[in-house]
Amino acid sequence: MPPPNTPEEGVLPVTMSYRRPREPVYSRRYSYRRTSTGPSVSPPPPVRLPTPPPAPSPSVPDAPRPSSATRRCSSKCQCIPKLDYQSLDYEVPVDPALQCPICHTPFHQPVTTRTCGHTFCSECLDRSLETQPVCPIDRQPVNPSRDLFRARVISDQLERLKVKCPNKGCDEVCTRELVVSHFDLHCDHTLVHCPDPFCNLRIPRADAQPSSGCLHKNTPCQYCGADVMIADLESHYDDSCSGHTAKCSHCNAIVVRHHMEKHLAKECLGREIHCKNMEYGCQVLDRRPIVEEHERLGCVFEAIGKLVLQRMEDRARIEDLEGRLRTMDARAQRAENTSTSPSSRPRMGSNSFMPGFAPDANIDAGPRTPAGNPAWRSPEDYMLVQFERLEAKIEDLQKMTWEFDGQQAVRQLNDALRMQEQIHELSNRVTALSLQVRSLAVNAQQQSNAQQRNGSSGSPSTSSSGTGGPGTRAPSHEDGRRYHSNPPPRRNSDGRGQHPPRL
Amino acid sequence: MASQKRMARELAQCTATPPDGMTVALANDSDIHNWHITLDGPAGTAYAGGKFGIILRLPDDYPFKPPVVTFATRIYHPNVTNDNAGSICLGMLKPDAWKPATKLFAVLAAVRQLLEEPQPDDPLETRIADEYRQDRKEFEKNARAYVLRYAKGPVKFDAAPAAGAGGGKESSGASGGASGSS
């Protein structure tokens, strides 16, 4: 039978029950994403798994209690309180302009009227329109099915605000968007159904473990003997228990019994405690104020404690390094065993101190010493080899440069000789030509002198030209022909005379 | 509850910064639905010097239904029933004119305004309204007499029955007779 103080079903909080019937209308009208109070989304609390009924249940199968099937809440369960948006505490004060004029809290799922542009929480407005179909601010007529639209910008803005979880004792702070899922699914302080399917009561989620069974049974209080429900023991100890306080045996303070351990460990002024550096050797054991003073002034063993910690740290590091060194050694040993052919370079020692040094050397020397990469004895060794190799390379390059220089010089010499010969030839031709030109010029001079002599004897120039013309011209023609035929044909500088005009 | 938070906020606002000459307190600390307001008669009116008790009762479905405001102290006023009920005729509080967005601060300010400027055109007490319109001196004399008789000394809130706020018109005739005899 239920305990005498079991509340009836109707006593359960009805925080938002009056809104239930309207919600489907709302969701149909504005098609909001129902994450919070929507009956369809609210999942059954995870703890209400279909656990097999506890042992005593078969013995009372016909008891007049509600059967598990009827009590098991469907998705439309109303007995678990839903998140009440209006009771949320915001981290920062919200601008009054973003608060519903009806409930005076920040808008939740705001809707705006088309006629006058006023915005309200959808639930507040629905409730107001039920009373009177007018705007709650200016009383303009509002048709709920036509004149409303979602104020999405406002809701998006508000969903981002940080709020505190409304459950007492929960310190969660998150955005308003997320607080619903926190409250419905995760918060340990949210009331959920008792894991016992035959119990109608609710219990914080943290305590509702199927393994712990129903906590709604009475148990005698260990201090006052009164019958108290297990779930209420905490608050009973804190508040109502008649024998809930006791005098601390050390400091005579009145302490709630339930918190005595905490008091002794952290608060009691009369009890003797050790210095916090006890494990490092401090022997101080005294009342709390004295020990605190001792610690404040600087316990000598605090430095020792630091050293000890440091030493432990160092030891751990040394062990770590030792382990790594061992693995390295093993690897070097393996590499040594596998290398068969001698390397290009004499090995400096078989028991290499730093095996596998400088992987770059392996890559560089790989093609040259394919048989096995020498494990260099030391960095100096490696550098020496590299140096030698570079020196050889430089010598090669020097030789190539010399060869190239010689070739270049021979080629230049040959070219110069050829040019000299050509220049000589050309100068010879030029002298020959100049001789010819001079002789021609002398001839022309003689002829002109002869003509002048004839002209000065008294004949007019016209008659002389008519009579002596052909005579004087003939030799010039002949000269011209001779000039044109005998010597190699000359080209005019302008190239026009290259092809003599054809007649 | 949706309205709890709003009522708490409005109470906080009205107690912190009440309208001039008013003090606001809860009748009972555990019941936020019943407010007790003390109003000093506005200076320059016939009610100056008097202290009037006003009871403001918030219905369960406030703010969707208007609050009910009654005078606990008897007052000689055309818009207040001249009886123990002390019902007020205030336009904004009529059920068909109530706007859920109206703040209680505005309601209290309107009550005070009603004492400064009675509304004889919308009276509960037609006799007093007529007197106010036609013989202002007589009205003020009567009002002062009422102040002297009822509104001096500590304010009592239990004089007016909590119920009976609705039917002001019906009781006006009877109360008018009562006032005439006094």
UniProtKB/TrEMBL annotation, chain A:
TRAF-type zinc-finger residues: 235-282
Membrane-spanning ranges: none
Residue ranges of every copy of the TRAF-type domain listed in the record: 235-282
Pfam families tied to this protein: zf-C3HC4_2
Compositionally biased spans, kind Pro residues: 41-64
Bias (Low complexity) ranges: 27-40, 444-465
Composition bias type Polar residues, residue spans: 335-350
InterPro entries: Znf_RING (IPR001841), Znf_RING/FYVE/PHD (IPR013083), Znf_RING_CS (IPR017907), Znf_TRAF (IPR001293)
GO function terms (MF aspect): zinc ion binding
Residue ranges of every copy of the RING-type domain listed in the record: 100-139
Annotated region (Disordered), positions in chain: 1-72, 331-350, 444-503
Keywords from the UniProt entry: Metal-binding, Zinc, Zinc-finger
PANTHER family linked: TNF RECEPTOR ASSOCIATED FACTOR, TNF RECEPTOR-ASSOCIATED FACTOR 4
Protein name in UniProt: Uncharacterized protein
Origin species: Podospora didyma
From TrEMBL, chain B:
Single GO MF descriptor: ATP binding
Domain UBC core: 2-152
InterPro entries associated with the record: Ub_conjugating_enzyme, UBC, UBQ-conjugating_enzyme/RWD
Region (Disordered): 160-182
Biased composition (Gly residues): 164-182
UniProt keyword annotations, A-Z: ATP-binding, Nucleotide-binding, Transferase, Ubl conjugation pathway
Pfam families with a match to the protein in the record: UQ_con
Domain of life the protein comes from: Eukaryota
The enzyme's E.C. designation: 2.3.2.23
EC primary class: transferase
Protein name: E2 ubiquitin-conjugating enzyme
